[in-house]
Amino acid sequence: MTTLEIIDRPILMTGFPGFLATHLVEELAQRTEASLDLLVLASEMAQATRRLETLTRRHPSLEGRARLVRGDITREHLGLSSSDYDRLRGSVGVVWHLAAIYDLAVPRDVAFKVNVGGTRQVLDFCESCKELDRLNYVSTCYVSGDRRGTFREDELDLGQGFKNHYEETKFWAEVEVQRRSAEIPTAIFRPGITVGDSRTGATEKFDGPYYVFGLLERLPEWMPIPNVGRGEAKVNIVPIDVLVAALAALGHEAGNEGQVFQLADPNPMRSRDIIERTLEHMGRSPAVGSVPESLVEKALANARLESWTGVPQEALAYFNHPAHYDTRQANAALARHGIEFPHLSFYLPTLLDAFARRDEA
C-alpha cells in the first residue's frame, strides 16, 4: 500500500465541547501528535474543562498539547484575545470548523448569525493565517434541502428549497466556504444523521431516530402501530465512531483540498424496515398499515401532542424524504484507510440496547 502523506500540524477546532467535536478530539488524540487549541464560548468553559479532563484521563497524550481558548465565532477575530489571535494565526496549520446550531427549530436570525456569520469569521481567520495547510469544514448532507432523488458530492446549489432554517443556513455557509476555497485550501465533509457508537451504542445526543425509538417504547403494547406514509424513503444514518475515524483520516490526509465528501451510509435502510427491526427488537407486534404523512405532520403541529409523542414535527421529514446521497468519492477515499460505514442492520440492536439503558446510573 502506498504511504499516505499526513498533515500533522497545530490544530484549531471550533465546536467543543459539543458531541461531534468531543469525539473528534478523542480520535485525533490517537491519530496525530499535533497540538489542539479548542475554541470555547465563555458560557461553556466549565463544561469544556470537565470534558477535556475526562478525555485527558483516557488519553494521557493530550496532557500539555490540548488547551481551551476562550472565543466566539460570531465575533471579529473569533472573539479571541489579542495574544491568542496573534499566536494562533502564526502557528495553526489545520482548522476544524464544527461549531454550528444544529436545532431543527432554530429561529432564522439566530441560525444565520451562528451558522453563516460564524463561518464567515472562521474564513476570515483562515485567510489571516500564515501557515495554514487546510480548513476542514463540517457541513451536512442536508444542504440538499427538499431535493428528491440522488444528490451528488459535486452538487450544491440546484435551486432547492429547505425544510427548516438549519438546512438553509448550513447551505449558505457551505456556499461561502466553496466561494472562498480558491484562497483557502479546504476539504468539505457532509455527514448524515449521527447516532451512537456502532460497537457500544454509547451516545449523549438523543435526537434524530432516537425520537422514534422513544415513541415506540412509550406506546402501549395493545395499540396497533402504523407506518408513517409508505415508509420507502431511505434514512441517512451514520455511527459516531466511524464518522470521526473518517473525518480524522481524510481531514489530515494531504491532497484532499478542493474535495467534498458525503459521509453517509452507501446502502441506507428504508424507514419502514428500521421501524420493523426496532419493533421486533422491542418484542412488539409488527406495524399494521400506514397513516398519511401529511396527517401526522398536522397532528404534530399541535404542541401538546408533539410534547406527548416526544417527536418534533421538524424531525419527521428525515424519515420520509426520498433523497439518496451519492458517496462514491468518499468511499474511494476511505478505502485508502480501510474505513467503511457499516450497514445499520448490523448495529441497530446495539443502539437500541444502549437506548433502553440510557437512564441507568
TrEMBL record:
Q: Which InterPro entries match?
A: FAR (IPR026055), FAR_NAD-bd (IPR013120), NAD(P)-bd_dom_sf (IPR036291)
Residue ranges annotated for the Thioester reductase (TE) domain, each copy included:
14-246
User: Record's Gene3D superfamilies?
Assistant: NAD(P)-binding Rossmann-like Domain (3.40.50.720)
Q: Mind listing the GO biological process terms from this record?
A: long-chain fatty-acyl-CoA metabolic process; suberin biosynthetic process
Annotated GO molecular function terms are:
alcohol-forming very long-chain fatty acyl-CoA reductase activity
Q: Which residues form a coiled coil?
A: 38-65
Protein name according to UniProt: SDR family oxidoreductase
- Identify the species of origin: Lujinxingia vulgaris
